[in-house]
Amino acid sequence: MTTPKDLLRDAFERVHETLPEAVADLSVEELLWRPDPDANSVAWLVWHLTRVQDDHLAGVGEVEQVWTTAGWADRFGLPYPDEALGYGQSSEDVGAFVLPDARLLTGYHEAVHALTLRVVDELDEAGLERVVDRRWDPPVTAAVRLVSVVNDTMQHVGQAAYVRGMALRRR
């Protein structure tokens, strides 16, 4: 019998398996390329989706984010506060994104994916039903938050793949 945890693991595995193709064989310049000044780059999209996943899964699991505890914030050296997720950033903020090494994107995502699987594996039925955000009506349960993260991350992986295709056509 397939359980909710099985479905969540499968969904997060799909994001994890899809993401490397979005960045594969792109130079740092191509990863940072934006189709126009108001568009997002592949690098920013991958960073953003991974930051959201890190933040939200850490919240569900009631653990610390790997962004700060594992030193990823320092390795990236972004001109944003450590708590920045990319949500609500301006075009200027997106344009300020820097990437000292392309491997940071997949390395950080790998670390967040490991956190994700630990959190999902530790959830039981009561954990999935636990309210994690009371700012919404109805309040958001862990299960709903996790489905939201899967939806958001998969959309951003698709966006990154699309921008990648545009960047490759410039070669």
Characterise this structure:
With 171 residues, the chain is mainly α. The protein has one domain (4-169): Four Helix Bundle (Hemerythrin (Met), subunit A). 65% of the residues lie in helices and 3% in strands. It contains 9 helices and 2 strands; from the N terminus they run H-H-H-H-H-H-H-H-E-E-H. The chain has helices at residues 4-23, 28-32, 42-61, 66-69, 72-76, 91-95, 103-122, 125-129, 142-169, and strands at 131-133, 140-141. A two-stranded antiparallel ribbon has the order 1-2. Helix 1 (4-23) packs antiparallel against helix 7 and helix 3 runs antiparallel to helix 9 (142-169). The termini are far apart.
- Write the CATH architecture name: Up-down Bundle
Major beta-sheet overview: 2 strands, antiparallel
Give the helix proportion (percent range): 55-70%
Mean pLDDT: 97
Task: Please count the helical segments.
Answer: 9
* Overall geometry: globular
What is the CATH first-level class name? Mainly Alpha
Rg over C-alpha atoms, rounded to the nearest angstrom: 16 Å
Structural class: mainly alpha
Strand order of the largest sheet: 1-2
